[in-house]
Every structure is written in structure tokens, then in C-alpha cells.
Amino acid sequence: MKGYFLGFIIFIAGIPTLMWWVSGMPDISVIPLVRMCVGTVLVLSGLALSVWSIVYMKRVGEGNPFDAMGHEVDPRTRHLMTEGPYKRSRNPMLSGTYIYYIGIIIALWNWRALLVFAAVFVFMMFQVRSEEKRLETDFGQEYLNYKNNTGRFF
Fold it and tell me: Can you give the residue range of the structural domain that contains 98?
């Protein structure tokens, strides 16, 4: 349960708040309507994909998504997930989070928010690579086959 809480605090609340802060904390009412609408569609779509992935992981994978650089925060998944949101992406939760951040960047339209996203992206690539090694160890050839047939993000 703490993995879900930490994930929410860091990825859903913390990073977007940092993006807003480095953008000069603009008043939401000054964001042009078109950018706000496009941003909102992306934010909601990204969150929906991430939530679907988390629910699927809990039900089918029987584990938690939050594994920090090889350190188990909550019990890891016990089953390799290759269907549902994981059918077209090995990391649909993170893909959804990236879509969410892109929606925020479009609404804020600020290069500093984009820099925050770039830093998060680089950091998360280390996490993804660490997780891929763990999945290869945990699931062996089954994961390697899945990895060869499914894109990392899309």
C-alpha cells in the first residue's frame, strides 16, 4: 500500500507541482482555452492509462508497481503481465504518466516545465532498465520473448 501512496505523492502530485512552480506558478485562469483543453484531454488520458495499468498489475500480476531501483517497496508482481494495458507496452503505467506530464507541459507552455520532464525521463530510464533486469531474472525466457515482441513505451 505504501508503494501506491509514494507513487501518488511523487509522480501524480509532486512532479506536476514542481513543473508548475518552475514555470512561475501561473494562474490557471490565464492559460488559453485551447491549450487548457488539449492539456486536460492528455492529462485525463494519461491518468486513465496509468490507473488501468495499476489495477491490472494488482489483480493479474498480484503485486505492486513501486520498485525503486531494485529495492522492493511493496511485494513485487508474481506474474508476468502481457495482456490488457501491457499488450502493447511493457511500461503502460509510465507511458500514461508521460502522457499526463505532456498535458501539463502543453497547458503551462513553459520550457522549465519541459526541463523537469526531461530530467524525470532520464531518471526513469535508469529505473526502467533496472526493472527490466529484475524481470529477466524473475521471469526468464517468458519475459525475453515478451520484451522482443512489445515496445518499451508504445
Answer: 2-149
C-beta separation of 84 from 143 below 8 A: no
Q: What is the tens place of the pLDDT at every residue in 6-28?
A: 888 999 999 999 999 999 999 99
Distance CA(74)–CA(58), nearest Å, equals 11
Buried b / exposed e across 91-120, counting CB within 10 Å, b at 16+? bbbbbbbbbbbbbbbbbbebebbbebbeeb
Number of folded domains that form the chain = 1
Distance CA 86, CA 91 (A): 7
Helix (H, G, I), strand (E, B) or coil at 91: coil
- Please check whether residue 150 is in contact with residue 87, taking contact to mean a CB–CB distance below 8 angstroms: yes
Residue 14 falls within a domain, yes or no?
A: yes
* C-alpha–C-alpha distance, residues 35 and 38, integer Å: 5
pTM: 0.90
Which residues lie below 8 Å from residue 68, measured CB to CB, with a gap of 6+?
Answer: 127
Task: Note whether residue 154 is domain-resident.
Answer: no
Cβ neighbour number for residue 139 with a 10 Å cutoff:
17
Q: What is the DSSP letter of 120?
A: H
